[in-house]
Each structure stands twice: as structure tokens, then as C-alpha cells.
Amino acid sequence: MTKKLMHETETKMKSTLSVLDEDLSGMRTGRASSALVEKLMIEYYGTPTPLFQLAGISIPDPQTIMISPYDPSTLQTIEKAIQSSDLSLTPNNDGTNIRLNIPSLTQERRQELMKMVNRRLEEARVAIRNIRRHAIDELRHSQKEGEISEDEMHDGQDNIQKMTDKYIDQVDETGKRKEHEIMEV
After folding, report:
1. What is the pLDDT of residues 54-104, one digit of tens each?
2. Do 115 and 136 belong together in one domain?
3. In angstroms, what CA-CA distances link 184 with 25, 56, 180?
């Protein structure tokens, strides 16, 4: 019982960390990254489709993202989707490709991004703590039902706490990396 619970708990915590990584990779820094646009939803024949399925996305230089649609008829639709998104980027359409120039970040914008990063980090910490609380509740329930002994419950709680500390440390490390990336000029 407890091994299965530990495995499920760790899987959920890993999942929380990967969601955080994916979330932060889409945040705009002063450097071009395909993660900024690849999940952007484009209306394609009436169906919302992620951009990476409709176009090749490349980074020709650190300040530019180039989008090459597989179907040239989608060029205008992709351009409109980028303009209406919250990316604050102006697409340059040359008839076959779309280029996005990533401007350098101002100090004010860097501080706004750090606030957003810190909010996401706190959400991840709260999610991990909720996973811990749920796992400990499961242990207590198992102990009440007589499935595990009191010693096993205490050992399980200790292991869950160690796991929680480990994943919260990883969240903090992820935050430090993103902060360094955002504050880098």
C-alpha cells in the first residue's frame, strides 16, 4: 500500500514540476525561443490547432523567430493569431515566412516577468503541498482501517515530507534559473 502511494505521490510531484517548466519556457525573455509560439492556437479549417503542427519554427539568430507555414494559405491566419495573442510581438510577413523580432526587455518588463515567475513558482509549491496533504490523509485512512501500522504511517509521513522538500527545492532551483535568464542583459 505505502509503496504504491509513494510512487503515485512522486509521479504527481514530477508532473507538477514538468508543468511548471513548460509554463516558464513559454515566458518571454530577451532571447528568441520556439516555446514562445509553438503552443499558440491557430484556427485551421475551423479547428484550433497548435502552431507547431502548421509550420516549421526556427531561430535564425538570438533575437528572431522564423515561422515557415507548411500550407502557404495559412500565412495570414497565423499572422493574425500572433497579432491578437498576448505576446506583444509584431509579425513581419515576407509572403512565404513570418519573422518575429524579439526586442530587448526593459527593466520594468523584467520586473513584471519576475512577478509572474514568482506567482507560478508559488502555485507549484502549493500544488506540491496539496499532493503531500492528500498522501498523508491516505496514510492516516489506511492506518485507521488497519491496513498499515502506526510505525508504517509515521515512516510514510517522513518519506512524503522528504519527497516534498526535494520537489520544493527543485521548484526553487527552476525559479533561480528563470530569474537569471530574465535578468540577463
Report:
1. 899 998 888 888 999 998 888 889 888 888 877 777 888 888 899 988 877
2. yes
3. 15, 28, 6
